[in-house]
Amino acid sequence: MNMKTRKEARLYRSSWTQKLLSLFLVAVLTLSPGGLLARNLPTGGKIAKGQATINVNGQTMTIDQLTSKAIINWDSFDIGKGYGVDVNQISKNAAMLSRVIGGNPSEILGRLSATGHFYLVNPSGILFGQGAQVDVNRLIASTLDITDDNFMADKLLFEGSSDAAVINQGLVNAQAVALIGKEVSNTGEINAKQVAMLGTKSVELGNVHGGKLSIDFSGFTEDSSVSNAGVINASELGEVILYAENGKTDNAQGTITTGELEISGKIVNLQELGNISFSHLLIDPTGVLYFGGDELSGGGVGEATGSPWPAADSYITEATIQTLLGTGALTLDWDQIIINGDVDDSRGTGGKRLTLKALGSGSNGGILTDGAHTLTMGGHDLYMVIEPTGTDGGDINLTDLTIITNSRLDIEARQKQILVNNEYNQLSGVVALKGRDVSLNNTGSTHFGVSTIRNGGSLQVTSGGKITQQGAITVQGSGTANFNAGTNDVILDHNGNAFSGTVSFIAKDVEIVNKHANGIQFAESEIGGTLTATATAGGISQTDAISVGGASLLS
Predict the structure, then answer these.
(1) pLDDT by residue (tens digit) across 492-527?
(2) Closest CA to 289 of 344, 336, 352, 330
(3) Main-chain phi, psi angles of 118, to 5 degrees
């Protein structure tokens, strides 16, 4: 998904008084059919920026916005059942900020329409009740405030200390919808190409005028929550993000149809993701993910009764993985991923991509196994990557994991170690590796994609079949490369190859091209057939004995 989340903790403490007030307001919004404090139409509107007119005719309020941006501060903003507010704006990209300063929550039970962008901000809470209908170009409903200057400058930074909720029980039709607050829930229906339900106390939205929506989190929330038990329709090309920063995200009873989907938060129950249809799903909590096992064999939902696993840990079963990959591409992004069970999706239709990402450093990061397991991908691509939060990062240690795949394998660990050296690996697709020290075993032929060995690391390849390439191999910092194909050929003929250190071979016929200025430097090698070596820069030399059974062509 192209909805980017960058989490930076910022300490915030709220008083018990604020929390109790929030609970009272949520109760008012949720339990009061007519609203204890609601009026039928907004009151006390004062224009703070831009130009607009406000007129009431019977049960309808009409707001004509005469400038591209306008800010109206209201004593209250409610719409009763059978009442309506129409906002006429000069273009679909015109934006109006309606800020409620009177201290009462907003209760929308009637009709709200706007031809452009409509932002409703009320730190006391917002409810779109049952029977409400909202038709706008773009809607933001937030209990977090935005400054006048930021709004006028198109800097959509929403911040605040409110504990109140944003609740939708009605029908919302728009191009884009963002519901923002510490507590956000939907039990109604939202139809929009872009939908964001964000549980946070600080967030900045970008690209609201079109294109991919970007989201930057920088707030810290003690126990936020995002819940969808309704319907979100974003179309097959849409984007939906449900994110509770440092809290729980729940879609167990919800239905979502979209292209790009993110369900993230500190706690996500991977066994209860609801009814979801997507082309790509990103799940991005924190803690440790146990991959492939179940609650008994390793990992658990932290809140599960009687779970022996830490609260920050999660697990995803083979059945869930199969179901999700049967729908679309899947990205699992945790601090650390531990493969603790066998996963076989060879019976699936293939053509999807499974991405395993680990954030963190040292012993708290990385991708590893807890014992001997088998991962069978069939026709799905497999991508593993370490994206450390600092300069360090955990290794990718898959020595005890047998990988069987007919499709592409990409593994990247930046400056760290990659061990894909299980003797039973069956890698018949393209293999691309990027890390410092890399060790690869494959029972069959090995076909390299673009690969990079960084900072003087080593590349060790053992293949039960021929070794070839479709992408260049780079070995930096005088690092070494060793290719063992037994009685099979090694053909490394890509013009972009850059081996800075020594290369060695155990093979039948060998062909190598190197563009690095150091030239081709052979270490001890046993070549049963012919040797063809082309150094497009530098010369050809050796550090140890080379045995060649056939002809040698050096240039």
Answers:
(1) 999 999 999 999 999 999 999 999 999 999 999 999
(2) 336
(3) -130, 120
Nearest to 178 by CA among 198, 159, 158, 153: 198
Task: Quote the tokens at residue 318.
Answer: 């083979």
CB 328 within 8 A of CB 319: no
Say which residues have a Cβ less than 8 Å from residue 45's Cβ, sequence separation at least 6.
Answer: 54, 72, 73, 74, 75
Matching residue, tokens 């020594």: 502
Bridge partners (DSSP) of residue 373 are 401
Sign of CA dihedral 438, 443, 447, 449: negative
Beta strand 133-135 with 418-420 is unpaired
- Cα(first)–Cα(last) distance of the chain, in Å? 48
Q: Which residues contact 23 (CB under 8 A, 6 or more apart)?
A: none
What is the token pair recorded at 380?
């799905």
Residues 6 or more apart in contact with residue 319 via CB below 8 angstroms: none
CA 308 centroid distance within chain: 28
Show the beta-strand stretches assigned E in 370-457: 373-378, 381-386, 396-397, 401-405, 409-412, 418-420, 426-427, 430-435, 438-442, 446-448, 451-453
The residue whose two tokens read 């990659």 is 418
62 - beta bridge partners? 55, 86
> SS3 for 112-175, per residue?
EEECCEEEEECCCCEEECCCCEEECCEEEEECCECCHHHHHCCCEEEECCCCCEEEECCEEECC
pLDDT in tens, 70-123: 999 999 999 999 999 999 999 999 999 999 999 999 999 999 999 999 999 999
What pLDDT was estimated at residue 246?
83
Q: Are 287 and 335 in contact (CB under 8 A)?
A: yes
Helices (H) and strands (E) in the chain, counts: 3, 60
CA distances 374 to 340, 399, 425, Å, are 10, 11, 9
CA dihedral sign of residues 471, 472, 473, 476: negative
Helix spans in 249-399 (H): 318-325
pLDDT of residue 389: 57
Rounded distance between C-alpha atoms, residue 545 and residue 539, angstroms: 17
